[in-house]
Amino acid sequence: MDITRKRILVSGGAGFIGSHLCEKLLKEGNEVLCLDNFFTGDKSNVVHLLNDPYFELIRHDITEPFLAEVDQIYNLACPASPVHYQYNAIKTIKTSVMGAIHMLGLAKRVHARILQASTSEIYGNPTIHPQEESYWGNVNPIGIRSCYDEGKRCAETLFMDYHRQHRVDIKIVRIFNTYGPRMHPQDGRVVSNFIVQALRGEDITIYGDGTQTRSFQYVDDLIDGMVKMMESEDFIGPVNIGNPHEFTMLQLAEKVIELTDSKSKIKFMPLPMDDPKQRQPNIELAKQVLGWTPKIQLEEGLRNTIDYFQKIV
Ligand code: NAD
Ligand code: UDP
């Protein structure tokens, strides 16, 4: 056995972010075990990796225990778009909470380092701006987003308690809105929705008046930040990984229309319950401790994403 080659498990590895992560880890000379139940992910996202002898694709639901000898675990399994995580809210909580317990139990047993893909949603509808890691958030515990937000908050608690109680080697990354190739065309998230609508010449659906903001990070920057976090020493996080450039949904719609040269018109629709009004990461901690900053700005990232959707839509 090659002892320099790490054996790395990626739960949710056939999803949007997971597939890019598997690709990067393989490129860096590691062995990758990709675990997925294919709820929102798809084999097509990793089909190009199947011929690599160091890549294994395993159909598994992390609400059930899993055992394998690994050195590192990236825990990404969880539907991420509101449409998908609300489709079966109880299952979403089970995936976040029971999934975290199973992955942490595995890390404890085999002494693996484990990284949790947490989210800016743990800040809820934030009352401070931009959001820094010390902020505890403003989250509705009984709303339609709660299955995701509270599930992810509980997962962070579990990570901290496995660390305190069992000395498990943990890392927590709070991911802000990320976009790029291999987003599911029907997953309902704003970047994929707007691009698909613009390419088809359909109305661009803005929820509310479009003044709410998000800060969009291109997937390659996120993967770079996650791997840097995993490889860092003496730092467990939580750390924000996101691009601080903030845009209103109206600005995003206009940019997508311009870049696709689309004839689509903007259509305003009701704002979903508990939709956060604004979101922007403070990334000072990631800069200082990881030496990480995002490199790809919205226009370049959108062009790459539009190229991808042009091929599949
Ligand atoms: P995605 O839906 O494309 O990927 C999630 C993957 O997990 C899918 O392949 C899905 O099939 C799999 N999965 C879901 N439930 C599972 C289960 N019980 N067992 C095994 N596999 C399961 O979403 P994504 O955008 O790639 O998100 C990946 C992770 O990053 C998620 O944990 C999400 O919460 C987190 N995140 C994403 C964003 C973003 O903007 N994309 C922002 C914050 C956090
Ligand atoms: N949104 C929108 N039109 C859409 C999809 C989403 O205006 O077709 C809005 C949504 O209400 C939210 C923002 O875009 O204010 C980001 O939504 P997304 O689901 O991508 O991410 P999240 O709300 O989880 O940050």
TrEMBL record:
Superkingdom of origin: Bacteria
Cited InterPro entries: NAD(P)-bd_dom, NAD(P)-bd_dom_sf, UXS-like
Keywords: Decarboxylase, Golgi apparatus, Lyase, Membrane, NAD, Signal-anchor, Transmembrane, Transmembrane helix
Cofactor(s) this protein cannot do without: NAD(+)
Compartments where found: Golgi apparatus, Golgi stack membrane
Enzyme class: lyase
NAD(P)-binding domain ranges (all copies): 9-305
Membrane protein topology class: Single-pass type II membrane protein
Pfam family of the protein (one): GDP_Man_Dehyd
Pathway the protein contributes to: Nucleotide-sugar biosynthesis; UDP-alpha-D-xylose biosynthesis; UDP-alpha-D-xylose from UDP-alpha-D-glucuronate: step 1/1
Gene3D superfamilies: NAD(P)-binding Rossmann-like Domain (3.40.50.720)
Entry's EC annotation: 4.1.1.35
UniProt KW tRNA processing keyword: no
Record family assignment: Belongs to the NAD(P)-dependent epimerase/dehydratase family. UDP-glucuronic acid decarboxylase subfamily.
Protein's name in the database: UDP-glucuronate decarboxylase
Species this chain originates from: Sphingobacterium micropteri
